UniProtKB/TrEMBL annotation:
The keyword Cell wall biogenesis/degradation does not apply. Gene3D superfamilies: alpha/beta hydrolase. One of its GO terms (molecular function) is hydrolase activity. It comes from the Bacteria. Residues 101-124 are annotated as: Disordered. This is Alpha/beta hydrolase. The lineage of its organism: Bacteria, Bacillati, Actinomycetota, Actinomycetes, Micrococcales. Residues 127-317 form the BD-FAE-like domain. Pfam families: BD-FAE. It comes from Cryobacterium shii.
Length: 359
């Protein structure tokens, strides 16, 4: 006779099956919940077609638009250079000169994981080309590497003998400072990896950066990123920028006479409620990051545009104080960014980049 409740042995077949099914259900539920929390991969190309427009809000044939399309340049589009924790898939376009560097045509990208073996397969770095990272503009909240004006910048740089990498980066409001500059740092590190450098025939020790307006701010900040040798990590060996806001502090913007619209754009980019209360402004202002080991800089500016000329002259003064070689070129008028990249300015920028990056 059994007295009291009957106790089922845990080792019985029925209980084991029930326990296994229960554990599987819990695991499946947990996996589903985790999948729901994991950001879905997405690119950073603007959703709205209009957002891909250039910063040149005019139909005039000015600046970069005055160049004839170079012949023989090849463009490798939408190359993935990284995926961020928020799911952002970061891409760039590569514009290569008509005559590819010998290593770029002699062999495909290596499969060996040994960096030394890859470098040996690449041959002497002196036979490869310098590279330039091209950073599009758009007030940090729009723009795209593939719009017609910035594609023209990419192919122009290639026609000058550089391998140009036109890069997309995360934009406001999806990502605030320092997301964009972190993305550019990642792009340079990606370019410098031996297999990637070999694939496009570049010398990883000779990487420069070019940008206009907001892209110029990022190119300048990239040049001041870190310290020490210009051949390691995300360091670049030259910077060229056109009409960039480089001092995002209260003094640089408000005291410097920047229009209210520019002040608001900066506040949104930095995630600040007011220019008087914006701790991120210091880190986003180039002069605060400079040191004597930083690369030479080219600054192009219009005399009468909405970016105060004091932004460019103040940048030049800061470079001077650190003993960093630099060149400041001002032009009359009010054209902005690559709107001043006409034949004469293109010649100056190209000469500067070659002087800085050629052996």
């Amino acid at each position: 006779m059994i007295i009291g409740p009957r106790l089922t042995r845990f080792g019985s077949r029925r209980v084991r099956i029930t326990a296994i099914l229960g554990a599987a259900a819990v695991a499946l539920t947990a996996t589903t919940l985790l999948a729901g929390l994991r950001p879905a991969p997405h690119d950073v190309t603007p959703d709205e077609p209009g957002a891909a427009d250039s910063e040149l809000v005019t139909t005039e044939i000015i600046g970069i638009r005055t160049i004839a399309p170079p012949e023989g340049v090849t463009v490798d589009t939408d190359v993935l250079y990284g995926t961020r924790a928020d799911g952002a898939q970061l891409t760039l376009d590569v514009c290569s000169p008509a005559e590819a560097a010998p290593e770029a045509t002699a062999s495909p990208a290596p499969t060996a994981t040994d960096a030394a073996a890859t470098e040996a397969a690449a041959g002497p770095a002196s036979a490869r080309r310098p590279a330039v990272l091209s950073v599009h503009a758009g007030s940090w909240n729009h723009g795209d590497k593939g719009n017609s004006d910035w594609r023209a910048v990419c192919t122009w740089l290639a026609s000058e003998g550089f391998v140009a990498y036109s890069v997309n980066y995360r934009l406001v409001p999806d990502a605030l400072f320092p997301a964009a500059i972190d993305d550019l740092g990642l792009a340079v590190e990606w370019m410098r990896q031996p297999d990637h450098a070999l694939r496009y025939g570049i010398d990883p020790d000779r990487i420069g950066a070019f940008g206009g307006s907001a892209g110029g701010n990022l190119a300048a900040l990239l040049g001041a990123r870190g310290s020490g040798p210009l051949t390691e990590g995300s360091r670049v060996a030259a910077v060229a920028e056109l009409t960039a806001p480089v001092d995002l502090s209260y003094q640089g913007l408000v005291t410097g006479g920047a229009p209210f619209g520019l002040q608001r754009l900066v506040q949104r980019y930095l995630g600040c409620a007011a220019p008087t209360d914006c701790s991120a402004a210091e880190a986003a202002s180039v002069a605060n990051k400079l040191d004597p080991s930083d690369p030479p800089v080219f600054i192009g500016a219009s005399m009468d545009e909405f970016i105060p000329l004091s932004q460019s002259t103040g940048y030049a003064d800061a470079l001077e104080s650190q003993g960093i070689p630099h060149e400041l070129v001002t032009v009359p008028g009010s054209y902005h960014s690559i709107g001043i990249l006409d034949e004469a300015m293109r010649a100056k920028v190209s000469a500067f980049l070659h002087a800085a990056l050629d052996d």
